[in-house]
Write a structure and sequence with these properties.
6% of the residues lie in helices and 50% in strands.
Length: 877
């Protein structure tokens, strides 16, 4: 507990900050977007109505156009932060071309003076300078025009799939989980300015629907001061808006594919000059909702329903409001392995026949995020926002609790868990001269409730334990000493009942930041400082300087950059309570594999990270951006798991060191052809001892090991071709992964000692692709031992006998190549007002038989998607 003085100071800072926020009670684009406004005039100064103004970013693929009104005015609201190439055309006038940079919510005013066609005019055309940004922060911009044609592996986690395929530095994992630059899940979203730092994989929460997104900026470099907590990757999302759409625009889509997967979706945008509404609704039903532990799908049905609504309204020339509303419900079966069905036909203690494991989950998520924006003057914009987001997670055991028994699950578990994140945010943006200043504050409270019920369903579990003195728990079938006596009342095989754990806490956080992007000649400086105050089960406060420098060598279209960031990393909120205090509970202690009978509360960590990078354009149609990263973290976070249950809990190791590199090669549209390649390599080295959280036992005799999301190299190449603008198109993905660490696979300690394989069941040996010479395991006849020279795997890279090292040479999932293809036509019948689209997508075209991971301490075993075909038809208006 913090001292009363510190409590008072924390509260005082929060109250003062909120007072300053509310002082501007009616505080023009919101969140992560700006706007471009202007007037088109002729050489005499008269306005030009019906002129066409277009803005585009050749790298992200963003492209929008507007027509000037009777007074010659045009407006582009909700524009993602980026440089743009602007073109204005009108009958009888020469084209006007210029570059416009949008870097804040302060509106950019662009006066345009057209010249008479045929007069002497110098025209600026697109060049390599349009492909580079003089920005010290390494990032990737992706627009809807790109990801609409990108074959995505996971329809139920399409946003995660998009980030994985289109962003450098991302390691792919199962169930929509991705690891940014060597960290477990230190990723955060900023949706129209709303911070979301809790996990967004589909076993924890529900994601924003993909068709509600206009564009994304994914920051993999040193984060600016406005971003904190989980910043290995920051995903800035700008949602679609109906403002300015004076004619309704929308689509109705439906698809059907492999595993009985079907979708239906609807979106509509409509508005006027001062208001707009965009609404999206979709539903998904699949026979392969999660990535299962078998290539053959067993017990894996699921469905998801999504609703998103964005409302924009301009109250006056200075004041505007913006509201995001969202609700998502997902229900799914927890996939079974063959081990989960082998007990069928046996009897439980009441002599009832056992059936297959039938565990299910349901997640309900709602989000409400209003904001007010006030244009104070031509240089300043003030924003005030509020938000509340809630995840309600239910995990249901099998109707017959004994059906939950499997070789890796000795308990039955039910869970009701809620995470409610509420907060206020405000910022003041000021742009003048060389300065682009932003100062802001965010206060949030996260209410956590964990309600678990569990019992032992393996009658051999208690006899396998020892009491506090090292004696067997059972002598002549009598329990002796703790933990034996503590667990006996909850051993269902011996007539016990369910143990109930109820936990609650309120995590309070305050963040204050100041940053300034200074542009001076060829130089760009990003200066900032951030202060984080964390008050949860532990407390911490951290000052965090941020610094970035970029230099643009204009003759060669080269940008050099370096940056540094100090970051406070907050603990994961999912199952934070049971991980922090569970070890002090006599019942939970042995189930969580705790090493001591004490509470182990997780405290925030802190990181120093250094980046150096280069961006280089080659002509007008090729640009490369690369970054080298060094990250040093005290209190390196990871996750562990209770058996084969959904109780994944956070743990912290002493420290981590993560060096690596990431890069991106982009080919903007060239006669209908475009390409994107992203790649990365990181070394995720974690150091013992474990500092906090419940039990996690890595094999690290030297005190350092590679975490199970470490990967030597990965890359994605996406190629897209559309011969003519309104014709058919073709998209192709090639994804290569060198393989995650798979530390649970047995290995040969030397060239003579047989490898002990009894630690794995026959099913687990099959999952890992193990063999011993010509011998292969079966479900009922597993391998027991194997001579080192005969031992191997078809799915895992196992070090040579005597060469295994948990840091330098660990076991890894075998490398894999996955190919995806998508073909389609956006206007099959060449309609004007109404269009019909068709799309056919093939995921894992070669039907590659491969693993994501094997007995991962976080998520277990999962296979990649087998070949999956999907056909989609759409009606657009």
């Amino acid at each position: 507990m913090i001292t009363s003085f510190y409590q008072w100071r924390f509260v005082a800072i929060a109250v003062i900050s909120l007072f300053l926020i509310t002082a501007f009670s009616f505080a023009q684009s919101a969140g992560n977007s700006g706007s471009i406004n202007g007037t088109v005039e002729d050489p005499t100064g008269a306005v030009v109505p019906n002129a066409t103004v277009e803005i585009r970013n050749p790298v992200s693929g963003y492209d929008r156009s507007a027509t000037t009104d009777a007074s010659g005015k045009f407006s582009f609201p909700n524009i993602p932060y980026n440089p743009y190439h602007l073109t204005a055309t009108a009958a009888g006038f020469a084209s006007h071309v210029q570059d416009v940079d949008v870097r804040s919510s302060v509106p950019v005013n662009v006066p345009i003076n057209l010249t008479v066609e045929g007069s002497s005019t110098v025209v600026t055309v697109e060049s390599g300078s349009d492909l580079v940004e003089n920005d010290s922060t390494f990032h990737t911009d992706v627009d809807k025009n790109l990801f609409d044609k990108l074959p995505l592996e996971s329809q139920s986690s399409s946003v995660s799939s998009l980030v994985t395929l289109a962003t450098p530095g991302i390691t792919a994992d199962s169930n929509g989980l991705f690891h940014g630059l060597g960290d477990h899940a230190e990723n955060s979203f900023s949706v129209d300015g709303q911070p979301i730092t809790d996990q967004q994989s589909k076993v924890f929460s529900n994601q924003i629907p993909l068709d509600s997104i206009q564009s994304m900026e994914v920051i993999a470099g040193a984060p600016p001061a406005e971003y904190g907590e989980k910043t290995s990757v920051v995903i800035n999302v700008t949602t679609r808006s109906g403002q300015g759409l004076t004619k309704p625009q929308g689509a109705v889509t439906a698809s059907y594919g492999s595993f009985g997967t079907s979708t239906v979706g609807f979106n509509l945008g409509y508005g006027g000059e001062k208001w707009g509404n965009f609404i999206s609704a979709s539903a998904l039903n699949s026979g392969r909702f999660l990535d299962p532990p078998e290539f053959t799908v067993i017990h894996d049905k699921g469905n998801e329903e999504n609703l998103f609504d964005r409302v924009d309204y301009q109250l006056s020339t200075a004041d505007s409001v913006h509201v995001n509303l969202g609700f998502t419900r997902s229900w799914f079966q927890n996939p079974n392995s063959f081990d989960n069905v082998l007990h069928i036909g046996q009897a439980d203690p009441s002599n009832h026949p056992l059936g297959p494991t039938d565990q299910r989950s349901q997640i309900k998520t709602f989000n409400i995020a209003p904001s007010w924006t006030r244009l104070l003057n031509n240089n300043s914009v003030f924003t005030l926002g509020a938000f509340v987001r809630r995840d309600h997670y239910n995990y249901y055991p099998s109707p017959n609790l004994f059906d939950d028994l499997s070789p890796i699950q000795q308990e039955t578990v039910a869970q009701v868990r809620t995470l409610t994140n509420t907060g206020l945010r405000s910022d003041l943006s000021y742009v003048k001269g060389v300065h682009n200043v932003k100062v802001g504050a965010t206060y949030q409270q996260t209410l956590l409730n964990e309600n678990d019920r569990l019992g032992v369903v393996d009658n051999g579990f208690l006899p396998s334990l020892n009491d506090a003195n090292g004696n067997p728990c059972f002598v002549n079938n009598a329990a002796l000493g703790s933990p034996c006596t503590a667990l006996l009342p909850f051993d269902l095989t011996r007539g016990g009942g369910l143990f109930t754990f109820n936990g609650h806490t309120d995590v309070k956080q305050l963040a204050l930041y100041l940053q300034d992007q200074i542009s001076k000649g060829n130089w760009s400086f990003n200066l900032g400082v951030r202060g984080d105050f964390y008050n949860g089960l532990t407390t911490h406060r951290e000052g965090e300087p941020r610094l970035g420098i970029a230099y643009n060598i204009k003759p060669s279209n080269t940008v050099l950059r370096i940056s540094y960031a100090r970051v406070l990393e907050t603990p994961f909120n999912e199952n934070l309570i049971v991980s922090s205090i569970g070890c002090s509970n006599a019942v939970l202690n042995p189930l969580l594999a705790c090493s001591a009978p004490n509470s182990t509360p997780l405290a925030p960590g802190w990181r120093n990270e250094f980046h150096a990078g280069i961006q280089q354009a080659f002509g007008k149609y090729l640009v490369f951006s690369g970054e080298y990263i060094w990250k040093y973290t005290h209190n390196g976070f990871d996750f562990s798991i209770l058996g084969n249950t959904p109780i994944f809990f956070p743990v912290a190791w002493d420290r981590s060191k993560i060096p690596g590199y990431a890069g991106r090669v982009s080919v903007p549209n060239f006669h209908g052809f475009s390409a994107l390649m992203v790649f990365s390599s990181v070394a995720a080295r974690f150091f013992t001892p474990q500092l906090s959280g419940a039990g996690a036992v890595p094999s690290a005799p030297s005190g350092v090991f590679r975490i199970d999301h470490d990967e030597k190299f990965n890359q994605t190449t996406h190629v897209q071709y559309q011969p003519w603008k309104h014709g058919p198109w073709f998209g192709f993905n090639w994804r290569y992964d060198s393989g995650l660490v798979a530390g649970k696979v047995p290995f040969a300690t030397d060239t003579t000692t047989p490898v002990d394989l009894t630690v794995l069941t026959g099913d687990q040996q099959l999952q890992a692709g193990l063999f011993c010479g010509s011998q292969h395991p079966t479900l009922f006849a597993p391998l027991t031992t194997c001579a080192p020279q005969l031992y191997g795997s078809t799915l895992v890279q196992i070090p040579a006998p005597g060469k295994q090292d948990p840091d330098r040479n660990p076991q890894r999932i075998a490398a894999r190549h996955l190919f995806d293809v998508s073909i389609g036509h956006d206007n099959v019948f060449h309609g004007d007002k109404y269009q019909v689209s068709f799309q056919l997508t093939a995921i894992n075209l070669a039907n590659e038989y491969a693993l994501y991971n094997f007995l991962s301490t976080f998520s277990g075993t999962h296979y990649v998607t087998p070949r999956a075909l999907t056909a989609q038809i759409g009606f657009h208006f």
